[in-house]
Structure formats: structure tokens, C-alpha cells
């Protein structure tokens, strides 16, 4: 009896395998209010799973460029109009399936920026032999990438070295696709609020506003006369889109 079950199982397995049809699904990650997440920012990591069984059917990183700025950001889109081309970043999943499969698509992006990475998912039916190409499945990734440049993580700063007791704060802020934020630019720095919270020994002691001083760079400062362990939390917020981003660092002020 046991052998009959095994024979039946393997017969079914090889039947399904022999009747599997290669089916392609193009998957792309697009930054909210911006362009596609491509190789220049490290890409997005895509995992395609059988929703019922949890089996991983395909996985890998998106590769390619961020796309055509005019087409994506400045052109009114009509039905059936594509916003991608052969150079636009994406991941081509190739699934061998014998029958329709309901799949879960998970996208982690941008994969190389851990403090900014967002995990977004969607679900679709994939039908054998019915490729999903062209723009494919586009998963939106909201937010900003915020990197605090100054002070550095766990930096020791002496009060004696501070001019007028000012601690300078610098942060790099870009769209999730790496697109540039600048004054008067397509992604206008003056429409993004970048603010900081300063904590000493886990207590908030100051709040500051950072201003754009050059593309992607925002700066501010606060005054202190005390030594101790400090934390800075920098946030970016765009009222028109709801995009947000945060970075945190800890440092020490000594005599």
C-alpha cells in the first residue's frame, strides 16, 4: 500500500512537471511620486511565492535604469499607455506552472538601504503560458531615503571644538529611486519639510528645522553646553504626497 501511494505521488509529480508551461511575469518597483527603483540605488528584491503552499517560485533583484523622466513624471497617461521601455528597471520572474497559480509578490526596496527599505506586497493569478510583460506588475514604494551625515554614528565630539557651542546637523535626502531633491527642481526641496529631534539621555531637549543647502543636502544646528550621550532623529515629510522618511544616530559630547 505504501509503495502504491509513493508511485502515485511521483507519477503525479512528473506528470505536472512534464506539463508545466514556462510563464513570464515582469515585476517592477516604482517610488511613489517618482521613478523606478533600479541598479543605481541597489535595486529592489523580489520574491514570488505560491500563495497556498508558500513555495518560492522565483526570486531576484530588479535591474536597469530608473526610466524616462518625461514619460513617467511629465506626460499625461492614457489607458494602455506604457511608462516603461527595455531599459527600465525590473525583475523578470519565470514560472513553470501546469495550472493557474495564485501568487504573492513581495518587494523589498531599496534593498541596500536598510533604514529606508519598505516591504510591499501584492497578489495575482498567473495562468500557464499567459505572460505578463510590458509595464508588468508595478508595486509602489512610498517614502524618502534619509541618511544623517553629521554627526557620525557614535562620534565623540569635544565641547572645546564646537564653534559657539553649535552642533551641526547634515542629512542627505533623496527619493526612494535615488532621484535628486533640489530647490525649484522636479522634486522641489522647498516643498519637503526636514526636521530634527535632539535627545540627551533619552529626553528631548531641542527640535530643529533643516534647510536645503545643495541638491539632496539639508542642514541645521543646535546649541549645547552639556556633555553626555545624544541622539538625533531626522525626518522628511512631503505634505502633497504623504511621503515620509527617517534616520537616527547616536553620538557623544565630551569636555
Automatic annotation (TrEMBL):
Keywords: Signal. The keyword Signal applies. The keyword Signal applies. Residues 1-20 form the signal peptide. This is DUF4198 domain-containing protein. It comes from Aquimarina algicola.
Amino acid at each position: 500500500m505504501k509503495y502504491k501511494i509513493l508511485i502515485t505521488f511521483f507519477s503525479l509529480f512528473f506528470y505536472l512537471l512534464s506539463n508545466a508551461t514556462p510563464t513570464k511575469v515582469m515585476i517592477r518597483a516604482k517610488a511613489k511620486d517618482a521613478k523606478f527603483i533600479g541598479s543605481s540605488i541597489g535595486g529592489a528584491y523580489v520574491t514570488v511565492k505560491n500563495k497556498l503552499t508558500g513555495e518560492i517560485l522565483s526570486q531576484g533583484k530588479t535591474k536597469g535604469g530608473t526610466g524616462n523622466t518625461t514619460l513617467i513624471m511629465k506626460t499625461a497617461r492614457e489607458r494602455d499607455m506604457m511608462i516603461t521601455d527595455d531599459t527600465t528597471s525590473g525583475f523578470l520572474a519565470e514560472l513553470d506552472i501546469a495550472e493557474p497559480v495564485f501568487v504573492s509578490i513581495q518587494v523589498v526596496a531599496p534593498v541596500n538601504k536598510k533604514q529606508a527599505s519598505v516591504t510591499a506586497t501584492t497578489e495575482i493569478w498567473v495562468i500557464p503560458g499567459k505572460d505578463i510583460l510590458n509595464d508588468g506588475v508595478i508595486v509602489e514604494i512610498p517614502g524618502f531615503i534619509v541618511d544623517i551625515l553629521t554627526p557620525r554614528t557614535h562620534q565623540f565630539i569635544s565641547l572645546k571644538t564646537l564653534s559657539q557651542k553649535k552642533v551641526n546637523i547634515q542629512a542627505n535626502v533623496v527619493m526612494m529611486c535615488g532621484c535628486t531633491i533640489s530647490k525649484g527642481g522636479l522634486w522641489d526641496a522647498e516643498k519637503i519639510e526636514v526636521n530634527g529631534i535632539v535627545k540627551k539621555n533619552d529626553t528631548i531637549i531641542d527640535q530643529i528645522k533643516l534647510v536645503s543647502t545643495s541638491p539632496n543636502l539639508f542642514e541645521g544646528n543646535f546649541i549645547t553646553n552639556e556633555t553626555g550621550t545624544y541622539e538625533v532623529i531626522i525626518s522628511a515629510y512631503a505634505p502633497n504626497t504623504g511621503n515620509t522618511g527617517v534616520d537616527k544616530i547616536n553620538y557623544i559630547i565630551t569636555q
